[in-house]
Design a protein that fits this description.
- The protein is mainly β.
- Helices cover 10% and strands 40% of the residues.
- It contains two helices and eight strands.
- Strands 4-1-8-7 form a four-stranded antiparallel sheet, with no helix packed on it. A four-stranded antiparallel sheet has the order 3-2-5-6, with no helix packed on it.
Length: 174
């Protein structure tokens, strides 16, 4: 009973988040005729911005980069994907995650985010994991998935087995 009690203590307030930008798939062709892009992701929480490395010549890049931000439940996380060009970078797509819609107290939240371009059209998907950082350093149990599963569009590390449950809860309604 003591273990159950300790595992279910209130965790304090959210003081920050860790954002793990894993990879993207099916990004649009920003440079017609080349069929390959040089994508990177700009992640913003409040006024702080972080940028992934640029991955050359692909529409299915892998970044595997983690960023930390100060944040609270009312913040948004904005993901913008660009194609790195010499003169002006091309905007490929974006997605905004509302932290208030996540259950970060239940552990890391993985999702394939459906990107949309400036006209609202589908622009590929971005695989990310968001994990809460709590006052006093307490954290929920559970690990961050190291690789997104190919199963369920919004599945977590368990793929299709839990994809529908988490997809309905966290998917398009972030």
């Amino acid at each position: 009973h003591l273990v159950y009690f300790l595992q279910n203590l209130p965790m304090g307030r959210l003081t920050g988040i860790s954002v793990y930008v894993q990879r993207a798939r099916n990004l649009p062709d920003a440079d017609p005729g080349r069929n390959k892009g040089d994508p990177y992701v700009l992640v913003q929480v409040g006024s702080k911005k972080e940028k992934t490395k640029t991955v050359k010549n692909t529409q299915n890049p892998e970044w595997d980069q983690r960023f930390s931000f100060q944040a609270n439940e009312s913040d948004d996380v904005v993901f913008k994907v660009y194609d790195d060009d010499i003169i002006k970078d091309d905007f490929l797509g974006s997605y905004t995650v509302k932290l208030s819609r996540l259950s970060l107290d239940r552990g890391p939240q993985f999702s394939w985010l459906p990107l949309t371009d400036s006209k609202g059209r589908p622009a590929g998907e971005l695989a990310v994991t968001i994990e809460g950082q709590w006052e006093g350093g307490s954290r929920p149990s559970g690990g961050t998935p190291s690789r997104p599963e190919e199963g369920g569009r919004y599945g977590d590390r368990y793929g299709d087995r839990y994809g529908d449950r988490y997809g309905d809860r966290y998917g398009d309604r972030y």
